[in-house]
From TrEMBL:
Keyword Cell wall biogenesis/degradation listed: no
Family: Belongs to the peptidase S33 family.
GO molecular function: hydrolase activity
Protein name (record): Alpha/beta hydrolase
Domain Peptidase S33 tripeptidyl aminopeptidase-like C-terminal: 422-521
Entries under InterPro entries matching the protein: AB_hydrolase_1 (IPR000073), AB_hydrolase_fold (IPR029058), Pept_S33_TAP-like_C (IPR013595), Serine_prot/Carboxylest_S33 (IPR051601)
Keywords assigned by UniProt, alphabetized: Hydrolase, Signal
Pfam families: Abhydrolase_1, Abhydrolase_4
Region (Disordered): 31-52
Matches recorded under SUPFAM superfamilies: alpha/beta-Hydrolases
Domain of life of the native organism: Bacteria
Organism name: Streptomyces huasconensis
Length: 537
């Protein structure tokens, strides 16, 4: 999941990260959600927490800290401090309860997301006024993320060096495999140098779900309502499986196939690469279909023009002059241009911006594309985001990753064959987990069925650059009771971005009603690649 910096995020929908009915043609009472057998699961017991002590930390915001066991099998052992934030319901007379959300990543701080809600209208995961009126919205930074003892593994210099490099050494811009292995060693050695192996091993999603239940208890709630986006759709089913009778309602947006997340990390990464390649191809196809009067890039052959541009920039990077408040200057090479394009192609709202930047780079002005690359890879500018470190630590605690290099070589070849442009990003990207120094010996591996919880609303985009649509279908089958709502179009996350989806999600969260399984929401606006001047942002 890639995030734009705030200025771009607010304007263009922040669907790059990193990564949502009056219903028109998509609402009906529908049949009862399908249900499968399976009893409720139990979890490790934990001591009852003290009530949260709140302090004002912003407009309509309160903050608190909750200590939870590092390992729930050792409740009196080491503790982790969780950062918790609350946005109080605006209509207290009709308050339903607490809504806990996870905005994804893994590695995205939920408290930062909640703090930015007033600026986030029209972006994935932005709650409607109806939801904000009826719920206390609760943000919990998962352990190892944000204010909850964020994981650190690299120095600023190491992050800056790594930001613009493709993973696959067989393509332009990639590093030789020995260097990739050395980078993985430096990364994992840095992780254990800056925090204990025991802490790193505790960052698994099952512990995140247990932490949420501690927050629920500290809030004094018997049940919670839950909304999860992207990785948040792993946390939600885990919670519903471990604590099914503590779920009031649940919505999972841009869902991950939890069976693949826990079971086959290399196949998981291949799916992500293919999904991202499909959104780039959708931009190519739309550009070509709209014609040169609308999309002049490539003069009717955008794919060939793009490949030539990447090769040209890789052979001779463009010098970028410093611009106060915009960019410190540097070089734009092919790997950086590919990464910026991958991110911008993943949201059809940013396609006009992508067209403008590619046209400028083709004419010798790489500053727009370089600035966009900085926006999707750097925070705070110009240091690449540390979210990647927390992201890696969480997935390594969850994943089963082969340790032998042969499996990674085979997966890299498969990724590039399946997604010849974007596959370079996925190739070898699990090497850190292959040599992870803090194995999680008690991870939850059973299917996350949520048996005993209320029916779940699963929302998926037809062309999602991060979580492909078939993952949503797989999740709906895995869950004991669920319905699937599909949004047409390109983008990661649907709630907050589409009026049809917004109405369906609000109905599910507030009233517990869901559309018919298999319902479809059309896009609110037709995708276009018509250039948009960067000065207009």
């Amino acid at each position: 999941m890639i995030q734009l910096r705030p200025k771009l995020a607010v304007r263009y929908g922040a669907a790059l990260t990193a990564a949502l009915m009056v219903l028109t043609g998509c609402w009906s009472g529908g049949p009862e959600p399908r249900s499968k057998s399976g009893g409720a699961d139990t979890s490790a017991s934990a001591p009852s927490p003290d009530p949260l002590t709140w302090r004002t930390c912003g407009k309509n915001l309160e903050c608190a800290t909750l200590k939870v066991p590092q390992e729930y099998t050792e409740p009196d052992g080491a503790q982790i401090s969780l950062a918790v934030m609350r946005h109080r319901a605006t209509d207290l007379d009709h308050r339903i309860g607490s809504l806990i959300f996870n905005p994804g990543g893994p590695g995205v701080p939920a408290t930062e997301t909640l703090r930015n809600l007033p600026k986030a209208a029209g972006t994935p995961g932005a709650f409607s006024p109806a939801v904000l009126a009826r719920f206390d919205v609760i943000a919990v930074d998962p352990r190892g993320v944000g204010g909850s003892q964020s994981v650190r593994c690299l120095t600023d210099e190491q992050r800056a060096e790594a930001a613009g490099t493709a993973f696959n050494p067989a393509v332009p811009g990639g590093k030789p495999l020995p260097r990739l292995l050395a980078d993985a060693a430096a990364f994992t050695d840095g992780c254990v140098k800056q925090q204990s192996k025991e802490f790193l091993a505790s960052l698994s999603t099952d512990n995140v779900a247990r932490d949420i239940d501690q927050v629920r208890a500290a809030l004094g709630e018997g049940k919670i309502t839950y909304y999860g986006l992207s990785y948040g759709t792993v946390v939600g089913p885990m919670y519903a499986t471990l604590f099914p009778h503590r779920v009031r309602q649940m919505v999972l947006d841009a869902p991950i196939d939890t069976n693949k997340w826990f079971g086959d990390s290399l196949a998981f990464l291949n799916d992500v690469a293919v999904a991202s390649e499909r959104t780039l191809n959708a931009w190519f196809e739309t550009c070509r279909a709209e014609g040169t009067a609308v999309c002049p890039f490539g003069a009717g052959k955008p794919q060939a023009a793009f490949d030539t541009l990447i090769d040209t920039l890789e052979a001779k990077p463009q010098k970028i002059a410093p611009s106060k408040g915009v960019t410190p200057g540097g070089e734009l090479d092919g790997a950086m241009a590919l990464e910026a394009t991958r991110a911008l192609a993943g949201d059809q709202k940013t396609w006009p911006l992508l067209t403008s930047a590619l046209l400028a780079a083709q004419d010798g002005n790489g500053t727009p594309l370089y600035t966009l690359w900085s926006s999707v890879t750097v925070s705070p500018f110009p240091v690449p985001t540390t979210m990647f470190e927390a992201h890696t630590a969480v997935r390594c605690a969850d994943w089963q990753t082969p340790t032998g290099i042969a499996a990674h070589k085979a997966a890299a070849a498969k990724a590039v064959a399946a997604a010849r442009r974007i596959g370079t990003r996925a190739a070898y990207s699990a090497l850190n987990c292959a040599r992870w120094p803090a194995p999680n010996m008690d991870r939850v591996t059973k299917p996350l069925t949520g048996a005993g919880a209320p029916p779940v609303l699963v929302v998926a985009g037809r062309l999602d650059p991060v979580t492909p649509h078939h993952w949503a279908a797989n999740m709906t089958r895995t869950l004991d009771s669920a319905v699937l709502l599909t949004r047409e179009g390109v983008g990661h996350g649907s709630y907050g971005t589409n009026s049809c989806v917004n109405s369906a999600v609000d109905a599910a969260l507030v009233h517990g009603t869901r559309p018919a399984d298999g319902a479809v929401c059309k896009t609110d606006a037709t995708a276009t690649t018509r250039p948009l001047a960067l000065a207009d942002r």
